[in-house]
């Protein structure tokens, strides 16, 4: 999925930005072949399409196994929900890493924080809570900003594409979002693009991947 | 169809309450009518109230029509005190305001605030609320106070009864009493002179009856929630103070609680605990008696069977597996704001029990891993029984208390009693320091033989607790419907008469939570038992405790995970019994939106669930079972043509963006709403925040070795 309405033409979209960020941190990147044909399978699983999910997940696992040379290289997921889904589905010995831990373990040690932001808002998506990475998310954010507001919330209710189909669930889930964001804060970060759509809608501020934040403060 | 009086009531309250919050459908009344107890009543109407003036209006209309009301918040109570077959008034959303004042010494809380949230609010100040029920992550202030709920550490020193500063209540005629407001108190005294006089008369009668006076004093030296908090009549002179304290533990049978002010208590910074193994339950109980006068914060008892439930844990000491059958553990905790004092406390505790041999050496720990293991061992007991029980059975937690000197004998007698009735899975644990024991076991209520077995157990339990050891039949869970038939047995005729008189002066026609706490039916504890039919292997272990509810995005919009499970069970029951085709059809129709479409399937509910049920997974299975073959084919096609799909979506989102830039937000919104509706919700509703199409990742797959040595 592409950029949001706050992002202008000069802004890189997430895939490009991630590429640049990793290269700056000294990495070479291996992409799976036929990247476009892959999906973690979660959109199918959520709708009850167990078989389609299984097919997708298996195909992804096989391809990742191949390009990572049987699990030799760590595999970065840029979205927490996809990571969580693969973590639940995969059986092969792959080193899959969630976006937060990857930044903490591999990227930040190789970059210098040049200009910390004064205030940012962070929304921990459900997968972050389910894998127990709340503390790590706060730690990562605090590397990048003086003041970090962590939104207290249940699931935002966007739930993949449910936010488009049953928008009242998303509105209800985020009914207390705006009140929690400090008045002087207009930057929100998370680790799931679909959640960000609803977060942006309910808060009226720019919600993007936390990779943008890391890229900005290290440049 | 509602009976005429209820129809009238509904119309009357519709004048001042949004009709969306007046629930009468088969699905909603069942879902909202369910609490954590093993009883089932289905309300005719559920009203989700948002403020006090709505409550006053409801009380007045109900009084006119002679309709009974039950008030509840989270519905996590266990004894059947939050259910109704008349009108259920739920005060959760809209009741979340709080105020800290008097130099942080007091916090005013509305009834819909979850106990743990109150503690989160107070934590930055190094403070907390006194009451600490195990359900604090879901239970709300209204119920915590109304049940005088308590847990591991608060004992009888920091429960709601001891820490209440003020209360605001709505009486059965709509009169408000706010004990923090002098004007309100004066007005109440003027308008309710007869009630005040009756309170004073009861107070003086008890004072003139030495035997009764000391019986009440003594019985509240240990935890007790059987019947009303009649210690209010011996502890206080002022009738307003008496009313305030009578409300604690009144289980919603006297008045509605609009807000409560509690005195805050210190939340000590440093904590240490030790799991100490004794050779017998006798030794453990005798040690507990010695610990009573040492600086402990909590002493929890775990019998041999309890320890068995954690012995496989990698953190458990190896010798757990080979402990003798008679062994018994105490989890001893101490706390302080100063590390040196904490160390001193550990030494004092050690010397307090040095006369009693322990099975093995013990150390206190503050290391988070070991500390958490010790408490996880204790807290995991209920879930263990819950998860191992047979489908269709319920989990029962007996909640009794004994004077501390009798605790050891009482434990042995209890174990014998449970063995006699073949409750082989029963585990015994509890807040030993307060003489409070819990027996947790599974119980089948689907056959008469099993109901009889439970009835006999209860009869003998009452004799054992009351006649043999002079204990409390309900220490901290409230009387409800479960112990109502035994209140007189425990308290004796004189005290019971006082309790009935209390009910009479606050609610003469018994229209406020009738049948709870005071009930003339000697078998009410065996009636209206909740069916727990098998529905799906993912959800069959659900105990309906409600711990999931605060963690669900759709709770309050449509249903919570617990409520989804309740509906799934009812559908399963109706499908297998064929007893009411129309009800089944109604529920199934509403379930499409309520159960399925509004579940985000995020699975956060599983994190809070004692038996780790992911209701989201269940809903996914529900969706799978209702899919048409054509849908499955489409999904399979999309999945096998993912590259084309992503390309189409990319272009699609770009086109949408172009249209947006030409048409503007309002036209796009209107058009998309129209399309969304005519496609029955299948085409996504457009919002301005819909992302632009992404640019295809244009980097050729390349196998280049990482340059920074991070490959491992």
TrEMBL record, chain B:
Q: Which UniProt keywords apply?
A: Coiled coil, FAD, Flavoprotein, Oxidoreductase, Transit peptide
Which residues are in the 4Fe-4S ferredoxin-type domain? Answer: 531-562
The protein, known as: D-lactate dehydrogenase (cytochrome)
One of this protein's GO BP terms?
Answer: lactate catabolic process
Q: Which family does it belong to?
A: Belongs to the FAD-binding oxidoreductase/transferase type 4 family.
Q: So which cofactors does this thing need?
A: FAD
Q: Which residues form a coiled coil?
A: 185-212
Q: Name one Pfam family in it.
A: FAD_binding_4
Record the organism: Solitalea agri
Gene Ontology MF terms: D-lactate dehydrogenase (cytochrome) activity; D-lactate dehydrogenase (NAD+) activity; FAD binding; iron-sulfur cluster binding
All copies of domain FAD-binding PCMH-type, residue ranges: 39-267
Q: What EC numbers are recorded for this enzyme?
A: 1.1.2.4
What InterPro entries has UniProt attached to this entry? 4Fe4S_Fe-S-bd, FAD-bd_oxidored_4_C, FAD-bd_PCMH, FAD-bd_PCMH-like_sf, FAD-bd_PCMH_sub2, FAD-linked_Oxase-like_C, Helical_ferredxn, Oxid_FAD_bind_N
Out of the domains of life, which is the source? Bacteria
């Amino acid at each position: 999925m592409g950029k949001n309405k706050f992002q202008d033409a000069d802004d890189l979209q997430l895939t490009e930005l991630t590429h640049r960020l990793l290269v700056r941190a000294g990495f070479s990147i291996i992409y799976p072949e036929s990247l476009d044909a892959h999906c973690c399978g979660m959109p199918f699983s959520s709708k009850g399409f167990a078989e389609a999910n299984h097919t997708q997940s298996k195909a992804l696992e096989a391809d990742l196994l191949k390009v990572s040379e049987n699990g030799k290289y760590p595999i970065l997921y840029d979205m927490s929900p996809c990571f969580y889904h693969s973590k639940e589905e995969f059986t092969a010995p792959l080193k899959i890493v969630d976006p937060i831990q990857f930044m903490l373990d591999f990227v930040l040690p190789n970059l210098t924080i040049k200009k910390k932001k004064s205030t940012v808002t962070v929304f921990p998506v459900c997968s972050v809570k389910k894998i127990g990475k709340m503390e790590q998310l706060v730690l990562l954010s605090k590397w990048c900003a003086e003041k970090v507001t962590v939104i207290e919330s249940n699931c935002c209710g966007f739930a993949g594409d449910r936010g488009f189909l049953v928008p009242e669930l998303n509105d209800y889930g985020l009914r207390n979002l705006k009140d929690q964001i400090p008045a002087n804060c207009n930057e929100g970060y998370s680790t799931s693009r679909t959640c960000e759509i609803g977060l942006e809608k309910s808060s009226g501020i720019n919600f993007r991947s936390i990779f943008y934040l890391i890229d900005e403060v290290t440049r | 169809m509602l009976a005429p009086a209820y129809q009238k009531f509904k119309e009357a309250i519709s004048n001042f309450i949004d009709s969306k919050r007046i629930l009468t459908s088969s699905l909603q009344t069942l879902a909202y009518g369910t609490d954590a107890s093993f009883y089932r009543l289905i309300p005719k109407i559920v009203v989700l109230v948002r403020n006090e003036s709505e409550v006053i209006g409801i009380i007045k209309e109900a009084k006119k029509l002679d309709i009974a009301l039950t008030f509840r918040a989270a519905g996590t109570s266990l004894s059947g005190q939050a259910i109704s077959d008349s009108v259920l008034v739920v005060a959760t959303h809209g009741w979340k305001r709080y105020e800290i004042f008097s130099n942080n010494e007091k916090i005013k809380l509305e009834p819909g605030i979850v106990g743990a949230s109150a503690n989160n609010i107070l934590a930055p100040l190094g403070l907390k609320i006194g009451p600490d029920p195990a359900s604090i992550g879901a239970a709300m202030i209204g119920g915590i106070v109304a049940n005088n709920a308590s847990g591991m550490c608060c004992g009888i020193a920091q429960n709601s009864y001891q820490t209440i500063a003020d209360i605001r209540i709505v009486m059965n005629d709509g009169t408000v009493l706010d004990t923090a407001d002098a004007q309100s108190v004066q007005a109440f005294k003027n308008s309710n002179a007869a009630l005040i006089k009756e309170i004073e008369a009861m107070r003086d009668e008890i004072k003139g009856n030495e035997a009764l006076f000391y019986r009440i004093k003594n019985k509240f030296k240990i935890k007790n929630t059987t019947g009303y908090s009649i210690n209010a009549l011996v502890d206080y002179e002022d009738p307003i103070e008496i009313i305030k304290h009578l409300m604690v533990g009144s289980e919603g049978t006297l008045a509605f609680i609009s807000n409560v002010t509690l005195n805050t208590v210190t939340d000590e910074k440093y904590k240490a605990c030790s799991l100490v193994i004794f050779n017998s339950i006798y030794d453990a109980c005798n040690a507990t008696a010695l610990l009573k006068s040492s600086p402990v914060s909590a002493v929890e008892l775990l019998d041999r069977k309890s320890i068995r439930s954690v012995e496989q844990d990698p953190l458990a000491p190896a010798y757990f597996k080979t402990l003798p059958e008679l062994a018994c553990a105490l989890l001893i905790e101490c706390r302080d704001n100063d590390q040196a004092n904490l160390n001193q406390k550990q030494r004092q505790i050690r010397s307090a029990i040095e006369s009693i041999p322990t099975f093995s050496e013990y150390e206190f720990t503050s290391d988070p891993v070991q500390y958490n293991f010790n408490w996880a061992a204790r807290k995991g007991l209920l879930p263990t029984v819950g998860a191992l029980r047979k489908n269709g059975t319920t989990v029962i937690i007996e909640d009794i208390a004994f004077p501390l000197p009798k605790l050891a004998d009482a434990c042995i007698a209890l174990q014998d009693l449970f063995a006699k009735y073949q409750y082989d899975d029963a585990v015994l644990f509890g807040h030993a320091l307060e003489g409070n024991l819990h027996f947790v076991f599974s119980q089948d209520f689907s056959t008469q033989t099993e109901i009889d077995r439970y009835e006999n157990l209860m009869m003998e339990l009452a004799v054992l607790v009351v006649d043999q050891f002079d204990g409390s039949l309900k220490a901290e869970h409230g009387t409800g419907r479960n112990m109502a038939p035994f209140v007189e047995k425990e308290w004796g005729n004189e005290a019971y008469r006082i309790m009935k008189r209390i009910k009479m002066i606050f609610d003469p026609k018994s229209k406020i939570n009738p049948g709870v706490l005071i009930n003339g039916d000697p078998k009410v504890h065996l009636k209206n038992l909740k069916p727990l039919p098998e529905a799906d292997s993912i959800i069959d272990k659900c105990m309906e405790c409600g711990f999931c509810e605060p963690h669900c995005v759709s709770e309050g919009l449509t249903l919570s995970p617990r409520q989804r499970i309740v509906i799934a069970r009812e559908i399963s029951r109706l499908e297998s019994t064929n007893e009411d085709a129309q009800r089944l059809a109604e529920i199934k129709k509403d379930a499409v939106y309520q159960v399925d479409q509004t579940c985000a399937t995020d699975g956060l509910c599983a994190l809070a669930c004692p038996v780790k049920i992911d209701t989201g997974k269940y809903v996914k299975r529900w969706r799978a079972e209702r899919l048409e073959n054509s849908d499955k084919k489409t999904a399979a096609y999309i999945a096998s043509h993912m590259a084309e799909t992503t390309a189409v979506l990319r272009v699609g989102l770009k086109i949408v963006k172009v249209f947006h830039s030409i048409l503007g937000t309002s036209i796009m919104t209107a058009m998309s709403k129209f399309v969304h509706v005519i496609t029955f919700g299948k085409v996504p509703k457009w919002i301005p925040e819909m992302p632009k199409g992404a640019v295809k990742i244009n980097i050729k797959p390349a196998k280049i070795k990482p340059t920074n040595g991070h490959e491992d």
